[in-house]
Specification:
heterodimer, A: about 575 residues, alpha+beta, six-stranded antiparallel β-sheet, five-stranded antiparallel β-sheet, 18 strands, rod-shaped, B: about 325 residues, alpha/beta, six-stranded parallel β-sheet, 12 strands
Chain lengths: ~575, ~325
Amino acid sequence: MKYFNRIQFIIAFFFILITVVTVLIVSFMLYNKFSNTAEDTAELNMGQVVEQVKYNLEMYVKNLTSIFEVVEETIDRSSSFSNPILEEQLNSIMKTREDLISIAVFTRDGKRVVNIPKLAMRPNTLLQRQSWFYSALEDPEKLSVSSPHIQNLFKTQYKWAVSLSKQIAYQQNGMDSKGVLVVDMNFKTIDELSRQVVFGKRGYVYIIDSYGNIVYHPQQQLIYAGLKYEDLERVLTYSYGSYQDELNGEQRMITIKTVNPIGWKVIGVAYKDELLTTKSELSTFLLWFLIVVIIFVLLLAIFVSARISSPIQRLAKSVKMLGEGHLNTPIPVSGIYEVEELSRRYHVMLQQIRHLMDQIIVEQEAKRKSELDVLQAQINPHFLYNTLNSVIRLVEKGHSGEAVSAITSLSRFFRISLSKGKNFITVQEELEHVRHYLIIQTIRYKNKFHYTIEAEEQVLPCLTMKLILQPIVENAIVHGIEQMADMGMIRIIARVEAGHLLFEITDNGLGMSQGVLDRLLLHGVPNSQGSGVGVRNVNQRIQLHYGSEYGIQFESELEEGTTVRITLPLERSQEEGEA
Amino acid sequence: MFVTWMIGCLMLTSCSVDGGLLRDNHERHIDLIVKMNHGDYWSTLRMGAEVAAKEFNVNLRFLAPPNEDDIQGQINLVNESIQKHPDALLLAASDYMRLAQVTDRAANNNIPIISIDSEVGSARVKSYIGTDNYEAGQRAAERMIHLLGGRGKIAVMNFVQEARNANQREEGLLDYVARYPNVQILDIAYCQSSREMASAMTRDWLRDYPDLDGIITLNAEASIGVGRAVKEAGLGGMVKVIAFDSPQETLEMLQDGTLQALVVQNPFNNGYLAVQYAVELIEGRKIADRIDTGIKVIDLENMLWPENQKLLFPFVR
C-alpha cells in the first residue's frame, strides 16, 4: 500500500492512464470513422458495378426486344412464309447481330412453320414443355423472355440461349393461323460479362429470374448439387438495396438490383474482410501506434515522475534526519521550482530554529547566573561586614539606641531578602526591604543624606520581583551621593502609571554621563562594597521574566541628579493576608 | 490491476486485427494432375478446381499428358511436381499400379496426396474424391435391366483393364446383373479408350450376336464409339445403349434416341471438392477417406431440367 501512495507511482499511473484512455478513445473513434467510410465506399463501388451489370442486361433485353419487334413486324407485313422475300429479310436481320442463334415460328401444336437459319430439326425436342413455348400461349399479348436454357431445336451445337417468344398471327397457305414466334439469343455475352465482375478476390455477381431460378451463377453446379447455398428467399424480398449476411462465419455484403422489365435480379456478393482491407490495415496500424505510445508514455512517465518526486524524496529524507535531531543535515536546494522554494523556506525556518535555540541557551544561562547573583546578594558578606563594623562603632561610642535600630534593620533586611526562598514579594515588603537598607546606610554614612518613601495605597499589595530597588538605591548612594559635599536626598515612589507598576528612584547626586549610563545597563559595574547585585542584573532579571517592554530607564543630568524608573506589570498578590 | 487492464486492451485490439489478417495470409500451392489435357470432362473438372482455387486463395497448376494412355507422361508430371514441392497434390491416376510408386515417392517427400476420379494403388493417399465407380456401374446395370424388363442379353464396353475406375464400374455392373438370372452378359470388351476401336468391336457384336438387346458402355470414348456404330447400323432404339459421361456427341445421340440413358459424373464438383478438401488437409483438418461426388442417370426426359442443363452443358458457347 505504501508503494501505491507514492507520488512517483501516482503521477506515472495517471499519466499513463490518461494517455492510454485518450489514445484508445481516439483510436476507437478513428477506427470507426475510417471503417465506416471504407464500408460506405465499398458499398457504393459495389452498387455501381452491380448497376452496370443491370444496365448491360437492360440494354441486352432492350436490343432483343427491338429485334423481336422488327422480326414480328416483318412477318406481319409479309403475306406468306413461302414468300422468298420474307426469308431474305429475316436472314438479313440474323446478320445484324452475331449473337442471334435462330428465329423460328411454331404452330400452337409445336410443329415447325419456319426457321432461320435453315437447319434440320432435332427429334425429341419436347418443345411444348419448354417455358418460352407455353408462356407465349398462356399470355398471348405479352412478350415473354425466358431464362437461359439449352437450345435443343436444331441440328447444330447445343447453345445456351435466352428465348423471346410471343404468340403471333400469320398467313399460311392463304389461311389465318396462330403460332409462336421465338427468337433465340446467345447467352454467352451475359455469361462473360457476369464472369468478369469480381469484388475483391472472391466476390461475384449472380442473376436470378423473378421466380428465384438461377439465371447465372459462377458456381451453379455446386448449388444444384447442394454444396453451395444462396439465400434466395431473402434476395427475392428485395427489388433494390443491400444488406449483410453471414455464411460459414464470413460477413458478406449483398447488393441487389432488378432488371426492368423482365424482373431478373442482379445480386452482387462481396466478402467484407476482402473489401475492407483498409480496415484491417488500419487496425494493425492503430495497434502498433498504441504500443508505441504506451511505451513512450511509460518511459516519459517514469522520467517525469522521478524528476518531480526525487527532490521531494530527498527533502523528505533530510527532514526526517532533522526530526531525528541531526540539526546540521544539509537541505538540498535544487530540482523543480516549488520544491526549491519549499527547501529555501525550510532552510530559513531551520536557521530561525537554530537561532532561537541558541538564544534560549544564552537566556537560560543568563537567568541561571542572575539567580545565582540574587542568591549571593541575599547574604552579602561585604554588606554584613560593613554594617557590623558600623554597629561596633556605634556601640563603642555608646549610641546603643542607634546600634539597636541598625541591628533590627539588618535583621529585617535579611529576613525580607530571604523571604522563605520566594522570588516574588509584595511591593510593601520590597519597600520595607529598601527602607531597612536605607536605615542601615544612613547610620553608616552618618546622615549624609535624607530619604523619603512614598507609595500609593493600591500598589502595596501588588507583587514585584524581589531585590530590585536595593541595587538601584545602592547605585545612587555609591555613585551619586557618596562624593557629594551637600546633603543628599533619595526619593522612592511606587505608583500605578498607565496600567503598569512604576518605581521611581530619584537622587540629587552627581548624575551620570551618557557613557556611564550605557555601561551600567550593558555591562554592569558590580561594586565591591555594595550588595553585589548590579543594576544590569536587575534589568536583566526583569526583562527575562516579564519581557523586554519592562525594565529600567535612567534619566540623568550631571550635577543635577539621577532618576531611575522601573516599570513592572501590575500584578495583584494572591495571598494578601500573608503580607 | 493497471497492467492487467492494459494487457487486456491490447489483447482485445490484437484479436480483432488477427481475425482480419489470418484468413488470406498466404497463398497455397496445389498441383492438379489429370489423365489428359483435353476433353469436356477434364475441362469441366479443371473449371471446378479453378473456381475453388479462386475461392480459397490457391495457386493451382493444372497438368496433364496429351493422352489418357500416356502413363509414362503422367508419371513424369508427378515427378516434376515433387521437385516443385506443392502444398498438396491432386492426382487422377491413369493406371492404378504404375502410378503407385511415384505416389509413394511424393508421400515420402511430405506432399499430401488426394486421388481424384480414379484411385491409385498407394496406401499413402489421404483421400479419394470422385465418383463412386462401383455404384456408377450398378446404376448403369439397373437402368439397362429396367429398360429390358428384367430379361435379355447384353454386352459391356469397358475402356482399359488396368484402370481402377474401369474395374470398379465393371464390378458394380456385374454384381447387379448377377441378381437377374434372365439377364445374360454376352461379352465384355476393352476399347482402350478409343472410339474407333469401340465402333469396330460394336460392329462385330452386332454381327455376331443378332439377338443382342443392349450395350452398356463404361466411359465417354466407349460411349461415342458404340453409339456411332449402333446408329450406323440403324439399330437406334432397337439395341438399348446405356452410356457413360456426357460429351456433346452423346447428348445428341441421347436426343435422337440412339442412347437411352447416360450415367453422368459431376466433374465440376470433383474438381471443386478436390481443391476444397486439399485446402482443409493443408490446414491440418482431418478429411474423410472417401468423398463421393455423386452420379446422375440422365435420359431424354430429364436432360433439360434446369438443374441438369448446367451439369450437361457446363460451358456457355
